[in-house]
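Exercise 7. Given the components listed, write out the predicted structure of the assembled complex. Treat all entries as one system.
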Amino acid sequence: MKAITRFAWFALAFVLILTGCAQNNQAPGQGTPGAAAEGGAKPAAAKKQTLTIWTLQQADINIQDAQKKAAKAFEEKFNADVQITSFPYDQLKDKMLAAVAGGEGPDVLLLDQIWVAQYAAAKYIVPIDDYLSKSDIKADDYFKGAWGAGTYQNKMYAVPFDVGVWGVLYYNKDMFKQAGLDPEKPPVTWSEFIEYGKKLTANGKYGTSNWAGSSESVQCMVDAFTVAAGGKLLDDSGKKILINSDAGVKALEFWASLSQISPPGSVGKNEEDAMTLFTSGQTAMAMYGEWGQDTIATRAPNMNYGVANLPKPDGGESVGTFGGFNLAINEKSKNKDLAWEFIKYSTNFDNQKFITMLTPAHKKAAQEYLKQKRKFPDVIYSQLTNATYRPSVANYPQIADIQLQATQKVMTGKLNAKDALQEAADKIDKLLNK
Amino acid sequence: MKTRSSLLGYTLIGPAIILLLVMLFIPLLYSLQLSLQDTDLSHGAPKWIGLSGYRESWLGGELWNVSKHSIVWTGCVAGFQVLIGLLAAMMLNRKFPLRWLVRALILLPWVLPGVVAALTWRLVYDSQFGFMNSLIAKLGFGQHATDWLGTPGLAMFAVILAAVWKGFPFPMLMLLAALQSVPQEQYEAAKIDGADTWRKFVYITLPSISGVLKTVVLLVSIWTFNYFEMIYVLTGGGPIRSTHIAPTYIYELSFRNFNFGEASRVAIVSFVFILAISFVLIRQMNKTEKY
Amino acid sequence: MLIKRLSSQAGFAAGLALLLFFVLFPFMQMLSTSLKPADELFTVPPLWVPKHVSMANFMAAFQHKQFVRYFMNSLAVSAITCALVIIVSVLAAYGFTRLEFPGRKFFLNVILVSQMFCISAIVVPLYKIVGSLGLLNSYAGLILAYMAFTVPVAIWLLRSFLLNIPPDLEESAMMEGASKLAAFFKVVVPLLRPGIGATAAYVFLMTWQEFLFALIFMTKPEMRTLPIGIMDFKGQYETNWGTMMAASIAISIPVFVLFLFIQRQLISGLTEGATKG
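Answer.
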C-alpha cells in the first residue's frame, strides 16, 4: 500500500521535474524564440544579437550553402548571430503561423505573397515605410507584381525576395515531331493550343493536362487567363470582384475546355500531378511555373523540350500570375533594426544572385540568374515582367476557395462558366463588404 | 468490493490529472474565450461579440454542411473500423500456420506515419498511375480512369476507405487482447452442448469482451471525428467541399483564414456534440458494468 | 462432417486472404514504386512488378544526411513516452477500478474529454504554454505533450482490461497474507499483460507517427522526428515519390520486426496464462 503511494509520488515528481529542469534551460537565452534551448551553451560573450529566420527548404543544396555563406558574412558585419532553419513549404506555413500567433516566431518572416495581406491585417508584421524611406531600396528595381504583393492598404510591409510565375508553356519537341507539328513553333493562341492538343491526343497520349485539385495554382492560371483576355480581378476600390466579366467567363471556359485534350480525372489532380504526366511523357504540353525546369531535369533529364510564353487569347496578351516570397519583420521581434538590416542585405543585388530559392525579385539580379541557371531565360523574363498578382486583401484565401469551387463546378459539369462565376462573384462581393 | 481510500486514489490519478490540466484544459479555456470574439481579419482588430458569433456561424450554413459530412464520415469510418477489427481479431485468434507473421503484418497500416499513409493512398487513387484503377482493370472490369478523388460523392467513399484501412488495426489489436481473457472452459462446455458458432459468439465471446469493445467504440468514434490528415492530404475537403469535415474546416478557418474566433466556435460546437454522444455511450457502459 | 470442416476452413482461408490483401494493397504500390528506376516510375497502365529492379531509391533515402538521425530521435521519443505513460496509467487505472474516492467517476470522464478536442484548434495556446514552460525545442516538451494525449486513452484501455479481471483473485491473495501492492503486482499485472502490451503498442505508435506537435514544437533540423523528416522528400511542388516510398518501407521494417517480437510476448502464449489464473 505504502509502496504504491510512494511510486505514485515518484511518478508525479518525475513529471514536475521534467517540466522544471527544462525551464532552467532557457534562462540565459533572453527568450529569443526558436533559439531558446541553445542558450545554455554559449557564454555571454559580448552582447551579440541573435536573429532567427525560417526559410524554405529546397532540393538544391547549393542554395542552402550559399545562404549559410551569406549569413556568415552578415554575422561578421553586424556582430550578430544568425540562425537559419529551413522547412518544406507546408510545414513552414503551419509552423510559422502557430509560432507567430503564439506571440513568438522568427525575427524575419519569409512570407508567400498571398500571406502578406493576412499577416499585415492580423498585425503580425510591422509596416516598413519608415525604414524604406531611409534606405536606398527602390521599388523600380524589383518586379512590379512582387512589390505590389508586399503592400497592404497603401502601406509597405514586405520586401520582395524571390518570384515565380504561373506559368510558362513547356512542350515536348519529340512528341510534336511525331504528331507532324513543327517543334520550333509552339502554339501561341488559345485556339492554336487546343488545335495542337487535339493532334497530340492519340495512341493513349494526350495534348496536356488541366487540373482543379485542392490548391491555389489552378486559380493562378484562371486569374492569369482572365487578365490576358482583358479582364480585371478586383475593381480599384477593392470592394467588388470582377471575375464574372466576359473575360473571366472566357478564361474559365478555356481552362475547362482543356479537358478534351487531357487524360481523364482532371478534377482530382493538382499541378504536381499534371507536371508528372508531362515529365513521364504522357502529355505533350504543360503549363507550369518556370521552376518546372528543375523538375524536368531531375525526372526526365533526357527530354527534348522547349519553353514558350503562355498561350494568349486572340487579340489578347500572354499574361501569367506572380508567385514568390517576400521578407517582413515579426511584430514581436526584439531586434527589429537588425531584422531590417538582414532584409536589406538579402534583397540587394549582390546577394540576390545566389541565395534565392526561385528567381530573384531584384530585376537585374533576375536577368543574371536566369541566364546562368535557366534555359530560355528571355521567355521567362518577359513572362515575369508583365505578370499580374492576386488580390491583396485580407480574406484572399476565402476568395480563392470560392473561385476554386466555381472552377470545380464547371469542370465536373455541374454548372456552366457564366452561372458558376456569377454565383461565386455574389458570394465574394458579400465577403468583401461584410 | 472497492477499498475506500481517497488519498491513495488521488495520488494515483494525480500525475495524469495535472498533465491534462496544464496541457489540455488551459488551452480549452483559451479557445472558449476566443470563440466569443470576432476575429475576421477584414473586420480589423478582434472584437468581443459574446454568444452572437455562435448564432451567425450556424446561420452561415457552412457549419451545417460540414456537420452532415462529419456524421457520415464518423459513422462509416468508426463503424467499419470496429467491424473489420472485430472480424480480424477473431480470425487471428484461431490457430493457423504463420499466425505470428500475419498478426504483425496486419498492424502495418498503423505503423506508417499518417501523412505518408495519406500520400500513398493519393498515389493509389491516381487516375492514370494508381493501382486502384489498375486493380479494377485486372479483375476484368475493363480499362478506365475513374477520378476517385475528383468526383463528388465518390471522393467521400475514397477517403472513408483509406481511413478505415489506416485505423482498423487499433480495434483489432485491442479486441485480440481482450479475446485472450475469454475463459476457454466455457467454449468447451458450449461445444458439448452443441452450440453453433454464432451462439458461442453471442453468449460467450461478446459478453466477455464487451467492456473493451465499448471503450474501443467510444475511442474510435471520438478519434475519427477529429481525424484530419487523411482528408487534408487526399482531397483538402474538395471537390466542391464535398468532403469537408469539422477538423478540416477548423484547420481551414484557423491556418488558412487566420480566423481563430470562428475556428474556436466550430471547435467548441463539435466538442459539445462529441461530448453529448460520448455521455450517452458512457452511461450505457456504466449501466452494464459489473464492478 | 469432414466436408463441412474443410469448407469452413476454405472460407476461413479466403477471409484471411481477403483481409491480408486489403491491408497490403497500398503497400504493393509503395514497394513497387520504391523499387522502380526513374523511367519506370510513371507508366500507363502502372507496372505492378518493375521490369528492372533498382535499389537507387533506397540508396538515396539512406544518403539523405539526417534520415537515420530522424529515425533514432523518433525511436527514443516513442520509447520514453511509452514507458512513462504505462507507469502513470497503470497506477491511475488501478486507482479508478479498485479504489473508491469522491469524484472518481467525474475524473474518469474528465480524462476522456481530453480526447474530444480538435487539436488544430488548440495548437496555438498549447504552443504558448509549452513556450512559457521553456520546453520549446526540447524532447521534454514533446514527450509531455504526447503524454497528455495518450495517458487518458491508456487509462481507459487499461481500466477496461482491469475490469475483466475479477477482484476476488487479489482478495484471495491478500487473505493469504500478501500486501495490496504485492497482490496487485503478483496477481493482477501478469493477467493484465495482454492489455498492457496492446496499450503500449497504441502509445508507441501514436507517438511514432505524430506530426503536428512535432512540427510546431521542434525547430532544429537535427531534433526532428521521422514523420517530419520524411517530408524532406516532398517539396512545395514536387514529391520525390521513389525515395519517399523507399524511406517509408525502410522505417516500417524495424517497427514491424519489433511487433513480431512483442506480439509473441504479449498476445500469444497468454491464453495459457489466463486460464491458469
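Discussion: Chain B has one domain: 65-288. DSSP finds 14 helices and three strands in chain B.
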